[in-house]
Amino acid sequence: MTQSAKPISSPVPDAWYPSLAVPMLAVGLVITASFFIYEATSSRKNRSLAKELVTGAAASFFLGFGSLFLLLASGVYV
């Protein structure tokens, strides 16, 4: 029995790449800005490690996937 290989396809349609890249990058930049404002305005005694980690992880997630979709939309990754 010969099994034919199916090509790997993206779970997201190609037409959605620009539409996903812009909002995800915008959200990531807003979260990053709020992180920097939080770091600059709070004293060392009032900072929360959990809040910093959650904010950093959320910003990393949105900026990472936003960059990926931007590179896919521009044709860098084909």
- SS elements, strand count: 0
What is the string of helix and strand elements? HH
Cα-to-Cα separation, first versus last residue: 33 Å
Shape: elongated
Strand content: under 5%
**Whole-number radius of gyration?**
18 Å
Query: Pairing-aware structural class of the strands and helices?
Result: mainly alpha
Largest pleated sheet: none
Tell me roughly what share of residues is in helical segments.
55-70%
Low-confidence stretches: none
> What average pLDDT do the residues reach?
94
Number of H/I helices: 2
Oligomer: single chain
Question: What would you say this structure looks like, in words?
Answer:
By secondary structure, this protein is an all-alpha fold. The chain is built from two helices and no strands. Helix 1 (17-41) runs antiparallel to helix 2. The longest helix has 26 residues, at 49-74. The radius of gyration is 18 Å and the shape is elongated. The mean pLDDT is 94.
Q: What labels would you give this structure?
A:
78 residues; mainly alpha
Helix-strand blueprint:
Blueprint (H helix, E strand, L loop, with lengths): L16 H25 L7 H26 L4
Compact description:
The chain has 78 residues and is mainly alpha-helical.
